[in-house]
Amino acid sequence: MYNACITGLGFYVPDTIVTNHDLEKLMDTNDDWITERSGIKQRRFFTEGKDTVASMGARASEIALQRAGLTAQDIDFIIFATLSPDYYFPGSGVLLQRELPFRNIGALDVRTQCTGFIYALSIADQFIKSGMYQNILVVGSEIQSNILECSTRNRDFAVLFGDGAGAVVVQRAKEGDTSRILSTHLHSEGKYAEDLILEHPSSRIKNRHDPNIIAEGRHLPFMRGNAVFKHAVTRFPEAIMEALDANKLQISDIDMLVPHQANLRISKAVQEKLGLPDEKVYNNIDRYGNTTAATIPIALTELWEMDKLKKGDLVCLAAFGSGFTWASALIRW
Question: How far is residue 253's CA from residue 327's CA, in Å, rounded to a whole number?
Answer without folding.
Answer: 19
